[in-house]
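INFO batch 0412 | record 1 of 1 | parsing
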Amino acid sequence: MLRSVRPLATVAMLSVLVSSQAFAQSDSDKATARELGQTGQAALDSHDWKRAEDDFRRADALFHAPTLTLGLARAQAGQGRVVEAWESYHRIILDNNTSSPIFAKALADAQAEIGSVEGRRARVTINVQGAEAPKVTIDDAPIRAEALGVERLVDPGQHLIKATADGYKPASQTITLAEGGMQTVTLTLQKETGGVVGAPVVAPIPAGTPAPQPEATATSSGGGSGMKTGAFVSFGVGGAGLILGAITGGLALSKHSTLSSECKDGTCPQSASSDLSSYHTMGSLSTVGFIVAGVGAAGGVTLFLLAPKGAPSAPATGLRVTPFVGLGSAGAVGTF
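INFO prediction complete | emitting tokens
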């Protein structure tokens, strides 16, 4: 139980604030601390612990005195925050300020009351496995790595402990500690495992739905038919080139015969210039025609040989081109 503070003690505490010269605070700070001490003591008397804590904390920050720290310790103990209360009592004992009778009285009260909160403090040991350098919190307050694996003083009651690390699933545990209780908590972090990349999602097929038909591929009969059609077209182009080469070659031979009679000793008269130009033109066209014929024939043979051999099908209707080469003649025959 906390000792009640008598009104006379309160008056003495406030009077010391005015006379003490321990710190060089301004008169305004001392006046503010005096008023906060008065309202804090009134809150203590009415068990308004939070208001009392706030007033005494502010007052002690403005004008440090063991009487104000004592009020802060009592307000913290009243809220069940016994770890902080013990530290406030202990600070008064370490200061050991007996420069005035009221300060000596505050020291004696702290020494008498600290035992009442010391036994109420609970202890928890937190261990984290599975990851190096984890981040650990208790009630969202971070815990330093040096405090892991050893007893940690905490207030009695419920606490939430969490542990996280990059690349690991978070782990947490809620515990409830009695006054003076002890507990060990071990959190194990497990590595995150990604899903299967590219795994198809198969939707269920309603009953009665016809099975989908496989799509045609390049190896189906449709692909083979296309390649054979290309082969026939190549044969047709080659045949046309062959016809062109044969006709223009014949005309070039005719012009050559004429020029042989007109030109003597490799020299042609001016009147033969037209026949000479025609001869060269027909010769060039004949050469181009035979080249086209060769390329078309080669391409047709290649496509025909590469076309897949499928099941025999009904004769296709449409244009058909069949090349032919005969003695002294060449060409292509088309049918429908």
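INFO post-check: The mean pLDDT is 78.
INFO record closed
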